[in-house]
Amino acid sequence: MANDYRQMWESIGVDLEAHDQLLNLLPTTYGKVYMSQENRPEGMEYFDFVISEVHGLRIQELQEHKAAGGKVIGAFCVFVPEEIVRAAGGICVGLCSGVEIGAAKAEKVLPRNICPLIKSFMGFKLGKVCPYFESCDMVVGETTCDGKKKAFEILSDYVSVHMMETPQMKREKDKQLWRSEVQDFLVKVEEFTGNKITVDSLRQSIKDINGKRRALLRLSELRQNNPAPISGKDCLLIEQIAMYDDVPRFTAQLNALCDELEIRVKEDNGVAESAAPRIIVTGTPMALPNWKVPHIIETSGAVIVAEEMCTGLRYFENTVPEEAETTGQMVDDIASRYLNINCACFTPNEGRMEKLVSLARDYKADGIIHCSLAFCDPYLVEANRVEKVLKEHNIPLLKIETDYGREDSGQIKTRVEAFLEMIGKK
Ligand code: BJ8
Known about the structure:
Blueprint: H1 6-11, H2 16-35, H3 44-52, H4 57-67, E1 72-75, H5 82-87, E2 91-94, H6 103-109, H7 116-127, H8 131-135, E3 138-142, H9 146-155, E4 161-164, H10 172-193, H11 199-222, H12 232-241, H13 247-266, E5 278-283, H14 292-298, E6 303-308, H15 313-316, H16 327-339, H17 350-362, E7 367-373, H18 377-392, E8 397-402, H19 409-422
Parallel strand pairs: 1-2, 1-3, 3-4, 5-6, 5-7, 7-8
Bound molecules: Double cubane cluster.
């Protein structure tokens, strides 16, 4: 990291020794996964810089915001309405982590056989490893899956937690429940920040977050072209950074990258040959720095053209209408937008199936890889529905179950290569 931030980390309570372990991992993995790619767009420079400063500059910005009286609110799910946090002058940061550090500490309060994402965030908090977590004044939990829901009870021993009840179905009464949860969240955020949310502040915040989502959608749509102008790994990185970077800066940088990609498309300048197999990845979110499976796929000769995941399309595919004239209408619009997210915690979850079929068509995909974290019941079980629907549409599917370890990389690579050979494009 360019500057010495140790004093800052220490002052916010980070355990420097554990944190060093994490920071030592990142540059080697990043170099191997990202800097080894050929013909990367120049606009990726900004995102490389963000990663090089992942626990530096951005944390410094959060600390400055706090010193000026602002609040930092952490989230673990794309159901947390960041528009509301921003409208009250707060900063919302995604806290999910894609690396196993602090597992021994986490296993003191959690069962061993639990999804790595939950184990990781608990390990981060108990081990005081993550400066984002340590910067949070409050975290927002949700009742999506059972593991997370119960883990938040334990987490509340260490940090202030506000729970949102996310419904399990999408009927009218579920919509009403969710609408009232969003309204309660607004009141909570107002109280917590001491700032009243006004029609103007909420409208502006909706516009800002829509701007970010539209830039992400623009990036996504550029990948419908063949040859793909950017790798799936780079797009995943951008989607991961979207969860915590400064909103207007991120949007401007991403739009500049998209301008460059538009030129690439006109010039037929791709990151892979047009004959390369085009793959869609779907499943559980891949939190930073979990790049394992995308790296395997793209070093096996394929290119990923879309991520039907929360670190992907589910985060940005819908926006909130900007025309509402009262905060009440805006809360309605926000609640509806979020309830359109196709998380496997819903039953039924037809929207996800329809989305996968239309994505395969629109992105001219040759196959779909379903990637679930181990012990994630919602996605592991829903893989059966995905398989059934894709079979009906003759879309090839490979199912992978994995965790944050490296041990299964060889085995996954063999399976991915066999899949690519089977779809006849390798
Ligand atoms: S909207 S996918 S971000 S809940 S991987 S913790 S589901 S056992 S992350 Fe998610 Fe929100 Fe849904 Fe998206 Fe549980 Fe599965 Fe672990 Fe998961």
